Each structure stands twice: as structure tokens, then as C-alpha cells.
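Open question from group meeting: does this chain pack into something compact, or does most of it stay loose? Before anyone orders reagents, we agreed to write out a predicted structure and look at it together. Recording both the input and the output here so the notebook holds the full record.
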Amino acid sequence: MTDYAPPGSDRGTGGPDGDPPGRPPTFTAWLRSRSDDELTALLDARPDLAQPVPADIGALAHRATSRNAALRALERLDRFTLQVLESVVALGDDRLSEPVGAQPAELAHGLGLSPGDGRGTEPLDAALDTLLSLALIWPDHGRLRPVQVLRELLPHPAQLGPPARALLAALPHEAVRRLARDLVPHSTASSAVETVATALSDPGRLAALTGQVGAPARRLLDNLAWGPPNGTVSDARREVDLATAASPVETLIARGLLVATGDDTLTLPREVGLHLRSGVLFREVDTAPPAFEGRPVPPDAVARAAAGQAFTVLRAVEELLERWTEEPAAVLRNGGLGVRDLRRAAQAMDTDEDTAALYLEVVRAAGLIGTDHRVAGEWLPTREYDLWRERAPERRWLLLVRSWLGSDRVASLTGSRDAGGRVRNVLGPGLVRPAAPQARRDLLTELGEAGPDLAPSEDSLRERLAWHRPRRQSPVYTDLVGAALTEAAALGLTGLGALAEHTRPLLGLAEDAEETAARLLSAELPQPLDYVLVQGDLTAVAPGPLVPELARELALVADVESTGGATVYRFTEDSVRRALDAGRGVSDITALLERHSRTPLPQALRYLVSDAGRRHGRLRTGTAASYLRCDEPALLTELVSDRRAADLELLLLAPTVVVSGLNRAALTERLRQLGYHPVPESGDGTMRLNRPEVRRAEPDPSSTVEGAPTPELTRATVRALRAGDEAANVARVPVALPEGGTAGSRASAVMEVLSEAAVAERRVWIGYTDTDGRQVSRIVEPSSVDGGFLTAYDTTRDAVHRFAIHRITGVAELAPSD
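C-alpha cells returned:
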């Protein structure tokens, strides 16, 4: 069994890290004695303790023992580690008459662990190391003590009641004196509470007291022994003694085996509960989670399935956002996306509405879409999307997945109703669940423990999560885990129900986690192709993903007809004209297809392109209300004579010019419907090609997901803590400053002292009021004093900093070290 007594903490010689002899050791002193690596591990495990960075170790200790911080730490404990912590709280309570049980050997006995029972004490050692690393317990002369706040957060550890001393102190003094006279008639203790508490802590006396009660009273004790320790009875505060006790309840009250804690509540003291359990704290102790149950799956099939889904996600997202570039979706008044627009988005991405809602929430969390600032708002891609589109496929997928892991929005809530009966819309309010990121990581971590060749069943996952995170279990958490399982499969983190190999690195803290994940995914993703197969039916087949440049050009000159393992593009007159309107010439289109087609271009496609190019731009519309100009008089004569064009109000002014009563936009659209394909021109006669307008929105600041602190940042935090602690506790000799006089005289004295320190190149301590009004301590190495500012190297910030002289509240010389 590990010895948890810190070095130099023997009784009578002072506590850890320099506590004066005779002073009891403190949690802060123990925390200060931890190594830098141990403090780094603490901040890695409990990152909330470093937000913001504490001023010193004392501030860190105060934050670590606060209620909210301790609650968050408890949620990270598995069932066995939580049982160990409850055991420490139960056996190490200072209110016990003999709080010496919170020692490793006593804990092993209370948990039913011994070297010869098959499980050994290794699980207990590991659990204690975890609790120490989380700073939930700390050693005090070989005894393990819980932090004080746990007494409040775990009021009934191991389903045991409070210690007898705490229960008796709340009773009327006369009732305790009467109980003391009956149990210990000739006691020499200083108080009645101490007399009774000492008696109830004696195993021999407890055995005698429980042996004196009848069978009905013993059954009452046995019912309360394993918890909960409270029972309800009328008139619980009745006055009884050994002589007047008549009922089984009164028999127990008269012997102190039950203590009144309310008008109708009786509580079993902790010492009595432990005696009835024969010192065992829990009926069942599981040192390991239940075994996985599921079906075997080939790891290579898992990798292929997950990578295929990852590719599907990328293609669906790019398809939708390219469409939203030209036809943005409207923003609802509540800031969300309407049902009809969601349905259209699902059709564009070739998926169902639930999956479309997930993809939309993920791209918003990644900052790829946002709303514009118009009165009638629209959802548009952002400039970040343009950068994202140019990255390698695996890098694009990593950004989406990292955003999903950190987002607190749950897409599966789309369509449900809030407490006010309002429907929740995708991208709108009401989808935030703060526990969602942790539920996702819990699920993926659990899948990671199953191995790459096993797809665990949902029941198995649920049971193991209940063991690993017992304090998180609730209907909301269960729903979040279920949603995370579905979303992980839809995003390509899992395949065939098992965790993909390229997902595993993302669950650790390694600095090269993303590099490793990208390398693994890149090997499984289909490689982009730079060719298509053009066929005689005016289609082109892309047998895989295309390189971005070819994909954009092909999407301009052809329409996507179907997607799947291969993408089919259809060439039509409208699609070719779209490319011509965007500035591509007939030769450009033909050269593109010849360069990238593995098959000869069919004659029909060449005719289609050349015919569309020949008719494209022969007519040009201008503004009269509008006019038509053409270098071929016969074409204008044909048009004026066309009965279908009667509504255009055409008038031939010259052989090559016709005016119309319609405006240019209406005239252009109507002529295109008639098959004439005009092109607008500007006032100087040059053609105005209809290049698509590229509009972009600013990303929503609230959608930005903050990443976990990097190892470098955590180590820098530890260095700042050490420096702040030194500044707060270093021995110093204050420099006398003038108390009276003007503020200028005091500032002059401060500047004089700091100037002398700069010349002598020695460190000094300063008290300083920061911009938030907080009083802080700093140890600085002055460099110069000029213009009302001190320029000095600040050891706390590990950087050169400028201090305003008027904010310096005190200066002290550092006392020489012994």
C-alpha cells in the first residue's frame, strides 16, 4: 500500500513546504508542495481552475475547494473512484471521535479489498492517485483528508448518516445529559456530547447496546443500516430514557442508536451504521466497468465506412454552400432557418432533414456560414468557407469534427417545442445544451476502449457510461449520448458502429493528435481525380471526387444529375450558356473537356457547345427603354417579324438597331425564352457578362468554439502561479514612504526607490492596483523609470511590463535568503 505521508510532515516538525512547527498542515501548503508536473496535471484534469489564471497558489486552493469547481470534478469520477472518495469522507470526518480510518489500510478494509481476494489493492491505489491528482483529497501525516466542501456535497457518504457528535450537538442540552447519564453514569468527559459520542464510537459498547434491544427494534436498525440513514416517525423529539422507553423506537432513542433530527425524522449515527455493517462501506464494489457486449466488425471495413461517410459530409456541405452563394436561405425573425429552407437544404445535400440539420449546425459552429446585415437577412457562406474549400479534404473534415466536439448546440432538438410551446428551428435559439460537448467526448472515449474490431451495443455503452460517469446520469444526459451516437456516425467518426481509427487520436491530449488523425484519414479517403469520362448521351461521369479546380469548372458548364459512388454531370444548352455568360469561350470549354476527359468528346457535345456559342451574344440589349443591336440585319428583321415577339414592342430604327418598350432586364429574359440568347452591353458598347455575384457574410462570433488549453499554455500558467505565490509570500522589508503630503511627493519617493533598484539591478516587491481594481503583488526587476511609468521585467507574467507609478501602493526590498 502506498504511503501518502508527504516528506517532512512528521508530527511536531511542521507541515509541508515550510509550515511553522506546531501549526497544523493545510491544503494550501500541500498544494504548494506539489511539483510543477503535478500542478500541470491538475490543471489539465481540471481546466476550469485556470480560467482566469489564479494570482497565486492560495487563490488556486480557494478555487479548487469551491462548490462549483468541486462539483465539476466529481462528475469526472467513475463509480469505484467515487466510492473511494465517499469512503475517505465517511472515515476521515473530523467530527468522528476517532477520525483515523481514512488511511489506505482502513479504506481497503472498508471497501472489501485485500491482497488475497483476487482484486488486490491496485485499484484502490490507482483511485487514490486519481483523487490526489484532482486535489479532492490530500495527505495529512499518513491520513487522507477530503477537501472541506465535500462534507457539504456528499452529506451521506456511502449512505451513512452524520457522525454522532454532529447529531448530538443539535439536540437540547438536557436531552443529551439524560442520554449521557443512562449510557455512562460515571463519565469524566468534559461534556455530555463528548461522553455519548465516545460511547457510540466504542465497538464493545455498541455491541452491548444493540444486543439489549428486541427483535422489532433490531429490524428497524437493519433497515436503516445500508441507507438511507433517515426514518420517519411521529413525535421524533419525545423525551424518553431507559426507564420509560416502551416501544421499539423509544428503545433505540433511549440508547442513542437513533437521534432525532427533526420533528418527525430520526437518523442513524455514522458510528452505529458502520458497526451494523461490520465496517464494510458498500454492499457491492465494482473496481472495473462491465465488459463490452456487441458484434465483431472488421477494422478495415470500419475505416472504409467511416472515411466514406466523411467524404459524403464534405461533398454535401460544399454542394449546399455553393448553392447558398447564389440562392441564400432566408433568416427567420428568431434567427433560425425555416422548415421549407431546411427541406431544400436536405434535397441539395441529398440527405434527410435530421442529418441536414446536423450538417448546418456543424458548419455554423465551424464559422463557415453566417447572416448578412440586411433588413431581410440571409444565410450566406463566410470568407472562412473560401479558405476551407482550398484545404485538403482531411483538413476540412477535421475542422468540422473539432467544431462539433466543442459545440454546445444539439441538432436533434430541431422541430421540438420549448417550455413556451414554440418550435425550435435549426440555427435558431433553444438548441443549446451545455452538457453536450462532454456527453460526446464520454461516448467517443467509451467507444475507443472497445477496440477497433467491436461494435458495442447501445445497452452495453449505457451500462459502461453509468459506471464511468455515475454523477452525470440523467434523462437529459441519456438523450445527449443517444444523439451523439447518431451524429458521430453521420459525421464519419464511427463506421459500422465502431470507432474509426482516424478518430482515436482526437480523444487524447497529444500535441500531434490532429496530424496523426489527418494522416490516417487521408489514407482512407478516395483520392481526388483530375479526369472525367464524357459519354455520347451528353453526360460526363466523375468516378470519384474531383480536384477542386476541375470540380468548379465542370459545375459551371454542366448540371449535376446524380451523386453517389460516381457523380453524373449533364450538359445542356442552359448549362453551356451559363459558362458562356461567366466569360468562358467556346474554345475554353472545348479545351477543358478535351484536357480532362479520358474518352473522346462526342460529336453531339461539340455541336452543342459550338451552336450555343454561335448564338450567344449575337443580340445585345441596351437601354432606350431598351434597345437591341446586331451586326446581322437579317436576324433583326427576323425578330421584328416573329409573332411570338409581339409583346416586346419592337421598332426597327436602323438595319442593325431595334428599340423596345420593355426595360433591358425584361427584354433580355424574354428573348432568352424565345431562344435568341442576347447579351447585355454597357453604354460604350462592350458586353456585360453575367458573372455570378459572390456574397459573403461575417461568421457569428457566438459560434466560435474555444479549444482546450495547449500544454504550453498550461505550463505557462503553472509558472505564473509559482511567480505569483513567491510575490505573495516572499520575505520582504517594506520601504518607508511618506504618509502625508501631496500625491506627487509620494510618487516621487516611489520613483526614487525604483530608480535606485534599476541602477543596482536588484529585484523588488511592489504592491499594485490593476485595471480591474484588484490589489496584486509583483516581484519585478526594474529597468527604467520615466514619464510616470516603471518599465520592469515581471516574473509573474514572464515578460517586460509597464507599471503606472500612481497605481503602485507599496515597495519592499526582498529579504536575503537564509
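Observations to bring back to the group:
Residues 448 and 499 are 6 Å apart (CA to CA).
The mean pLDDT is 83.
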